[in-house]
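Schema walk-through. Below, the input block comes first and the output block second. Nothing else is stored per chain. Lengths vary across the set, and this one has 435 residues.
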Amino acid sequence: MTEDMGRERWSSTLGFIIASIGSAVGIGNIWRFPYIVGANGGGAFLIPYLISVFLFGLPLMLLEFTIGRSTKTSVITAFQSILGRSSLAGLAVVAIAGLVLSYYLVITSWVLAYALFFALNSPVDFHVFTGSYFPLIFFFFAGMAVFLTVRSGVREGIEMISRVLIPVLVVILIALVAFALTQTGAAAGIEFYLSPDYSKLTDPGVWTAAFGQAFFSLSVGMGVMLTYGSYLEGGALFRNASIIVVADMLIAILAGLAIFPLVFTAGLDPATGVNLTFITLPAVFVDMRFGMILGALFFAMLFAAALTSAVSMLEVPVAAMMDSRGYSRKRATLLVFGVIMLIGLPSALSYTALDLRLLGIRFLDLGDYLFGTIGLIVAGLIICIVGGWYMDRNRICDEIGGCGWQQKIYIVLIRYVVPAILLITLIANLFQVGG
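--- output ---
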């Protein structure tokens, strides 16, 4: 599909920025970032994280925007226009985005369920919830919310829901921070979260964690930003990307200011990782004054983050099918959604009474490692190689703007530095599991 054939467009640059922020801000920003900061040197971790974001995350985001806007098409056909033999590489990126979504929808459904439980003043223990078949019902409803949004199109679906949900997310987050800072454990929580331990900066593991967090929290590396960039007409890409990156960082930092004071006030272990969202925090809300309201607001905020991210992931294969096969949006969305729901069913069943596992590992946990960790890094490498090495350099420079020396630095980053960091992160993840 080309521009002349009426390719969809964002209504404005602001709409594009808000939708991209919605994609970048996901569940990981709310629960993963605060824990990673606390476990890796507190405030000192922000140093390698900021370096990672601006020397690694931002260049890769810019490359995706550049490929999308300059080719005016989605991943597979964009790769074909750059390098005729790269359609399989594009297909791999699209497949990884769909596979990540297949299990991400399961987590999104849990968030939806907990928002409803707290809103109805009936919180449920996570083990009780996942020991039943109720998660399947919420898996379906969460999937339908994503399906209906993408089916409605770029402006009427993706952009509209982002314009509504992102401001709501920010308002709720600020309200939760304000409340959390009035609690008795606020000082201890902030100390755990932000007190710098500069000795950690000599630990390679801390830098690897920073690289990984920068990569995973910005929705780069799986074709989302490339696809979103293909719907953009004008605007300064560097400025737009910088706004998106800073907004993503601020929301992640604010999340920690909301979470840790509450955890320390309740006297619970702050280093609970994944359990923080569905086990530790619900217990905090249950025992607090106004806990049902706070819990409902917290999980509503999480659902807003999860939904806008899930929508962006579904758009990648949908847009690819529309552009490469000529399907209508409605037909492409229905076909892709049906396949992803089927693929995601084992992950959904792995956290139900069936407790579905493969080689002793729950399907969701296995998918998170294979697709959400290893797969995303591989997809990022593919984008760097195809875009950084095979796309015409002048075309890249025209899109990103700036003067000559800035463009030279960018080319070095995207051809050498970013791929090297991705390889280091990939090896570190493989050795971590192997160890």
